Amino acid sequence: MIDLEKLYLKYKHRYSSDDPVWFLHNFKEEKDIEVLGLIASCYAYGQIGLINKFISEFLKRINNKPHEFIANFDLRRDGKILDGMNYRFNNDMDLKNLIENIKANILEYGSLLNLFLEKYSDKDENILNALRLFSNSLRNIFLKNLKGYDYLIPDVSRNSTCKRLNLFLRWMVRKDEIDLGIWGRKVDKSKLLMPVDVHVYRVSRKLKLIKRNSCDMKFAIELTDKLKKYDASDPVKYDFALCHEDV
Predict the structure, then answer these.
(1) What is the pTM of this model?
(2) Tell me, what's the pLDDT at 245?
(3) Residue 66 lies in a domain
């Protein structure tokens, strides 16, 4: 059995492995960090080099001003700036839809944090209830009914692991050399759910952390509960190590 604490300590340092989270460390304003964090997490699938290339290109096109660009985004005026921003399963209209949805929600709630807090409660076992509203609110506005958008912002009710939304929440809530923790004063990190993708699923089963066969939200919840036996206050801290280690 692998020593999870030793594995965590191996990777807990800044730049210990290539990852899109490092882009967020280049910003000081929380409003920039949270909107860029959501976009970066939504596109955090596939090869890491291609992910980072996409995010770098996005920041270049918007002059490194994520919140300002999104808050003032007008499709007719600014849409052409994002033309050709395609990434694997998603085309540039998916990105424009995402930005329209982020803009609508920060205009209504003031910030993505305030949106998340609409349904968040310390009394809940985990953040699942808040995640449902958060996801639904970011799926309200569609310029076109594009299937690719479902891949960026999944419907939580469909029981997927919602890996990248949970990844975003890890970045926002936890605080160490990796995660920025700008939401940590409002959201308890012990309520977070593990961001589970195929790699984490396979690693978790190989390490016999969990026996469940289906890679779904129930798997993410069961894995998180298992990791609470190692650290009840911060079970998701092991995610960065598990997703970068081949064990």
Answers:
(1) 0.95
(2) 77
(3) yes
